């Protein structure tokens, strides 16, 4: 194995670029729900649906961006194009907030801005993650550490974003939301500028060759001839498109309505996300160019990604229902100062920065004694901690009336427990995808990995819509939600059940990973 000390400077360039992109995303996210409810006067259920659709599509488009990068543009061009597109989207949100009194115009600008953010993220997200692994030789033992460092960039950006954007945008005055969106726009422009200036100097493989350039057409044709296609053939692409459309229509049918109203009330975006999450993985794994060992490795990615859906759909309540809870039912006074509700979204990344070295030391301690849990088992522990976090806050709000506020200790404790769960689950995800993906499918499978996050975020928006308000009683799959205790217990049951099943499967999954780890 390669044992070169230190890390290439390209890793830190990717770190900074990702940091500013996450600053842009989380800065906007910290304000978005509050902007819709307080400035545009959306009700909570509608705001949750918009939020879920946006965050779901944000993680759906990396599939397209990964495909275009692998086949046409390369990683570098895709990253720059994505960053500039997202900056423009943030600027449209700024304009929307400038004209929030003109509801029609403000909503039009907001949805146009969201569309550009969704499109830009598709080009940015899978390509910057893929480039991390390409800075190292295949046998370089620093690779896992590199992904951990890269993940810290995510958390640095998401730490400072709610603080800065929340400070200027979440002031209690609707006319100030625009400054938060403008700060997010500036952050994205900074990230694009830094990457564009230094990419040619630092983004190189161990031999000094540039990484992430556009694929050479001659090489692409050679791969297609020898390997049955670098991606899907035209027929398979059409099959994927037709199957996705058909399944989207099927998911959108209202079976209780008459034939003339069978699509009444259809959630087209949700149906598209769920259909794509099913169709695309099937199309990829049935590609004839894949060897049996490659299919086994991809299968492991799919199984782990399935359980990740349960984690993120509960975890991402931070930007949805937990934002409502922080704003309306949490006592945020510290002395004579009332902390903005958006600041709570900095708690998790701050805790990650503090606790990550501790968790690394714990894993190292257990590894030396042959007691370290395998990767799938760590993810099961993460799901269990997520469940315990919601159990903690559920008892904190039990019996609390809707007009009463509770101490910050309950929401802070939830974020602390969830952070420990995230450290067990999230950092190893990108590394697993990179290690198990066939090289010619690396960006596409990174996009598939984000498909699970797409489905999870859409599901998170759906679940956030069950947040109790005005004494309304709702039912989710037969489970009655009358108050906050019932609402939080829903996530206890969901993530707890997923943790148990994944724990039982973890040994088998690790054996599958070990059996094929040397056949990449």
UniProtKB/TrEMBL annotation:
- Superkingdom of source: Bacteria
SUPFAM superfamilies associated with the record = MFS general substrate transporter
Q: Where in the cell is it found?
A: Cell membrane
Identify the keywords attached in UniProt to this record, alphabetized: Cell membrane, Membrane, Peptide transport, Protein transport, Transmembrane, Transmembrane helix, Transport
Residues forming coiled coils: none
Membrane spanning stretches: 23-42, 48-68, 80-99, 105-124, 145-169, 181-198, 237-255, 267-286, 298-315, 347-366, 378-395, 415-436, 448-467, 487-505
| Gene3D superfamilies associated with the record | MFS general substrate transporter like domains
Query: InterPro entries recorded for this chain?
Result: Dipep/tripep_permease, MFS_trans_sf, MFS_Transporters, POT_fam
Membrane topology, as annotated: Multi-pass membrane protein
- Please tell me whether the keyword Oxidoreductase is annotated for this protein: no
Q: Which NCBIfam families match?
A: yjdL_sub1_fam
Question: How is this protein named in the record?
Answer: Peptide MFS transporter
Q: Which species does the entry assign this protein to?
A: Bacteroides gallinaceum
């Amino acid at each position: 194995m390669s044992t070169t000390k230190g890390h290439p400077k390209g890793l830190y360039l990717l770190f900074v670029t990702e940091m500013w992109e996450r600053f842009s995303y989380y800065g906007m996210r910290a304000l978005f729900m509050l902007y819709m409810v307080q400035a545009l006067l959306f009700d909570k259920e509608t705001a949750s649906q918009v939020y879920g659709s946006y965050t779901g599509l944000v993680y759906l488009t990396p599939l397209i961006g990964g495909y275009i990068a692998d086949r046409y543009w390369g990683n570098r061009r895709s990253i720059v194009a994505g960053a500039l597109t997202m900056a423009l989207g943030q600027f449209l949100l700024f304009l929307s907030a400038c004209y929030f009194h003109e509801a029609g115009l403000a909503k039009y600008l907001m949805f146009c801005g969201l569309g550009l953010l969704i499109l830009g993220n598709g080009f940015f997200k899978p390509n910057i993650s893929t480039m991390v692994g390409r800075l190292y030789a295949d046998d370089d033992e620093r690779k896992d550490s590199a992904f951990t460092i890269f993940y810290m960039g995510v958390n640095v950006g998401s730490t400072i974003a709610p603080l800065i954007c929340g400070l200027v945008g979440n002031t209690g005055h609707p006319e100030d939301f625009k400054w938060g969106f403008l700060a997010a726009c500036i952050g994205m422009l900074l990230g694009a500028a830094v990457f564009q200036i230094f990419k040619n100097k630092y983004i190189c493989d161990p031999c000094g060759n540039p990484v992430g350039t556009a694929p050479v057409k001659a090489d692409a044709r050679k791969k297609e001839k020898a390997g049955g296609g670098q991606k899907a053939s035209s027929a398979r692409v059409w099959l994927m498109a037709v199957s996705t459309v058909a399944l989207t229509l099927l998911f959108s049918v209202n079976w209780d309505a008459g034939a003339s109203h069978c699509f009444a009330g259809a959630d087209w975006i949700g149906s598209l996300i769920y259909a794509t999450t099913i169709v695309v993985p099937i199309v990829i794994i049935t590609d004839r160019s894949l060897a049996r060992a490659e299919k086994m490795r991809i299968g492991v990615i799919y199984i782990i990604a399935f359980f990740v859906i349960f984690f993120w759909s509960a975890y991402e309540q931070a930007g949805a229902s937990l934002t409502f809870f922080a704003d309306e039912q949490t006592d945020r006074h510290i002395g004579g100062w009332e902390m903005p509700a958006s600041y709570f979204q900095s708690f998790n990344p701050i805790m990650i920065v503090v606790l990550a070295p501790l968790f690394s030391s714990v894993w190292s301690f257990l590894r030396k004694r042959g007691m370290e849990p395998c990767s799938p088992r760590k993810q099961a522990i993460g799901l269990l901690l997520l469940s315990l976090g919601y159990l903690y806050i559920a008892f904190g709000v039990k019996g609390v009336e809707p007009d009463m506020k509770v101490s910050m200790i309950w929401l802070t404790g939830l974020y602390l427990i969830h952070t420990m769960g995230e450290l067990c689950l999230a950092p190893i995800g990108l590394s697993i995808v990179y290690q198990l993906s066939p090289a010619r499918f690396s960006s596409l499978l990174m996009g598939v990995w984000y498909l699970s996050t797409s489905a999870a975020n859409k599901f998170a928006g759906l679940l956030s819509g069950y947040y109790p308000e005005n004494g309304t009683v709702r039912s989710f799959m037969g489970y009655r939600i009358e108050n906050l205790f019932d609402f939080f217990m829903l996530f206890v049951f969901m993530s707890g059940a997923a943790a148990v099943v994944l724990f039982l499967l973890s040994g088998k999954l690790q054996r599958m990973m070990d059996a094929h780890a040397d056949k990449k």
